[in-house]
Write a structure and sequence with these properties.
Elements (H helix, E strand, L loop, with lengths): L16 E6 L3 H4 L10 H12 L4 E7 L26 H4 L6 E6 L8 H8 L5 E7 L1 H14 L4 E9 L8 H8 L5
Parallel strand pairs: 1-2, 1-4, 2-3, 4-5
């Protein structure tokens, strides 16, 4: 019996890690704004710190038109061009990996084909969703990304909602699905 050594080498494939932050807008951190999130500046600091371990960073921010459907069930907020829709540049500029700002006018950050294509173009192996409005935007975006075939996770220390309590229904769904850690 002859044994052949085929010289096959195993290559370790690098998993492309992508951090997607939702709603890094001025209105998120303004304590006088209707949709200000709890400890927003602290969470932004943690997002910047976490980004150091990622290959790509996208922030998907609200940029609404005055007549968007979302305003049928939420107060008017982050209208395109108004102060509360402006990017939190002091945090965004600290992100060192390749980054981009995308916009949305629904709760779901990947509802638009454009956002899907941009994020898909970096071929992410893992997408960590973080940011603000956990029970609505983070949840709907995470679930939509899973439906698109992405591997998704959410870390509790990288999200914030309108209240300090993250035990509501939206977070419960994310925990049940094993997405929120």
């Amino acid at each position: 019996m002859v044994r052949l050594h085929l010289g096959i080498q195993r290559k370790t494939l690098k998993v492309i890690k992508t951090l997607v932050a939702l709603n890094m807008n001025m209105g998120t951190t303004d304590p006088f704004h209707t949709l200000c999130c709890h400890n927003a500046h602290g969470v932004c600091d943690k997002i910047v710190e976490a980004s150091r371990g990622f290959d790509y960073f996208f922030t998907i921010n609200d940029a609404h038109n005055i007549d968007d459907n979302e305003f049928k069930y939420l107060p008017s907020h982050r209208i395109r061009g108004q102060d509360d829709s402006i990017l939190l540049t002091n945090y965004y500029n600290q992100i060192e990996c390749p980054k981009a700002v995308l916009s949305k006018n629904t709760l779901n950050g990947v509802f638009s084909k454009h956002n899907q294509q941009i994020i898909s173009s970096v071929k992410p192996g893992l997408i960590r969703v973080c940011g603000f409005c956990t029970t609505s935007d983070v949840m709907s975006t995470s679930l939509a990304m899973m439906d698109l075939g992405f591997t998704v996770d959410v870390r509790a220390n990288l999200v914030s909602d309108l209240t300090e309590d993250l035990s509501d229904e939206g977070c419960g769904i994310l925990k049940f699905l094993g997405i929120l850690q």
